[in-house]
From TrEMBL:
It is a multi-pass membrane protein. The keyword Zinc-finger does not apply. Keywords: Membrane, Transmembrane, Transmembrane helix. One of its GO terms (cellular component) is plasma membrane. PANTHER family: 2-NITROIMIDAZOLE TRANSPORTER, PTHR23523. This is CP family cyanate transporter-like MFS transporter. Its main location: membrane. Gene3D superfamilies: MFS general substrate transporter like domains (1.20.1250.20). The keyword Transmembrane helix applies. Coiled coil: none annotated. Residues 13-393 form the Major facilitator superfamily (MFS) profile domain. GO terms for molecular function: transmembrane transporter activity.
Length: 393
């Protein structure tokens, strides 16, 4: 049931600016950590498994936030709930400014939960205020999520050197969160509290919903697995932390055209399975290339990082798009998406921790990257079973 708003009209342009400002913060706190893992391990004495657990905990809290987001919106409306969610991102980033294990873990958990809640709420805001341009706005905030993560990966190491350590470099990401709140709070104040709505049930017994969750789990694991371990993997092969961070930044940048172009082609042609297969083939080729020839002569890891970025950047929005196309109404779409995101982030959260344990146990990265190869195979199975989605309308 849709919330009943009796709010003063907020101009779409104001909502759009605030929404994009919020979206800028939905990956930076996580993307700024992996290039600093080696510095964190050296400073705090972490094993690879412990360092991976920091990212795992943050992503698991994203899963919890995704499941809690609809309840938060039900109580006070998505606009007000977004204030609290992004406030948690800012607080978590500040807490990580203390160079110790407990603040690092605590701050990561807070930021992850806030990101998870906000990610779910943004969809409701778009439907409520910008429904007539939902496609363009969604593409805009996906790009707004991805570009700052590219910057965060690229500048993490030099930023740590400039500000005096890895902890302060992580705390810097509280600044854009606070600025986003300054842009969004006026919007939230102008929207009155909605009437109570029925609590949506997650469709655990629905076959399509389970397939969508499987697809998002594999797609998310491929993103967060590489986000966490690509830079440390390359440093283990002799690359400097700065150069490894730049490769990670290129990987993140390659996600932007993948996220914008491939889902649009799938929608235009009505061939979701074909274009999902193209995206997954790109991801799988890059993953196998990084496993077998990470430092290929002349080209190095760059083309593999681009292939993984293009494919994995498309995988996540393709999973959300097929939910929109195959569900009968907005309520069913929201429930299925919430389930898919919650399960997907849970699996993606466990992945980096499992990969870290395998790195410790095997004293290498082959088994850990093998986890990502398995994830690609699982995603392929889900794509085949979901089949081609009909175009909306």
């Amino acid at each position: 049931m849709k919330a009943a708003y009796t709010s003063v009209r907020v101009r779409p342009g104001v909502v759009l600016v605030g929404l994009l400002a919020l979206a800028l913060n939905l990956r930076t706190a996580l993307a700024g950590y992996p290039p600093l893992i080696d510095a964190v391990r050296a400073d705090l004495g972490f094993s690879a498994g412990a360092a991976g657990f920091v990212q795992t905990g943050a992503v698991l809290m994203m899963a919890a936030g995704s499941l809690a987001g609809p309840a938060a919106a039900r109580r006070g409306g998505p606009e007000r709930a977004l204030v609290g969610a992004v406030g948690l991102v800012a607080l978590g980033s500040l807490v990580r400014g203390v160079p110790a294990a407990v603040p690092l873990v605590t701050g990561s958990l807070l930021a992850g939960f806030g990101i998870g809640v906000a990610g779910v709420l943004l969809t409701g805001v778009v439907k409520e205020h910008l429904a007539d341009r939902a496609g363009a706005v969604t593409g805009g905030y996906v790009v707004a999520m991805m570009i700052p993560s590219t910057v965060a990966s690229a500048v993490a190491v030099p930023l740590a050197a400039a500000v005096g350590g890895w902890s302060l470099a992580l705390a810097v990401w509280a600044v854009p969160a606070v600025l986003a709140l300054a842009a969004w709070v006026p919007v939230a104040r102008r929207v009155e509290r909605p009437a109570p709505t029925e609590r949506a049930r997650l469709p655990w017994r629905d076959r399509f919903a389970r397939l969508a969750a499987t697809h998002q789990s594999a797609a998310s694991l491929l993103v967060y697995g590489w986000m966490t371990w690509l830079a440390p993997y390359l440093t283990s092969r002799g690359w400097s932390p700065r150069d490894a961070g730049m490769v990670l930044a290129v990987w993140a940048a390659a996600q932007v055209p993948g996220a914008l172009a491939i889902p649009a082609l799938a929608e235009r042609t009505g061939r979701w399975r074909f274009w999902s297969g193209v995206a997954l083939a790109s991801t799988a080729a890059g993953t196998i290339g990084l496993l077998l020839a990470p430092l290929a002569p002349v080209v190095g890891p760059w083309p593999w990082a681009v292939l993984v970025g293009l494919g994995s950047g498309a995988g996540f929005p393709l999973g959300l798009a097929v939910v929109a196309w195959r569900t009968p109404d907005a309520a069913a779409s929201a429930a299925t998406s919430g389930m898919a995101l919650g399960v997907g982030y849970t699996v993606a959260g466990i992945g980096p921790f499992l990969m870290g344990l395998l790195i410790d146990l095997t004293a290498g990265y082959a088994a850990a990257i093998g986890v990502l190869v398995v994830a690609a195979a699982v995603q392929a199975s889900a794509i085949i079973r979901i089949g081609d989605a009909p175009r909306a309308g």
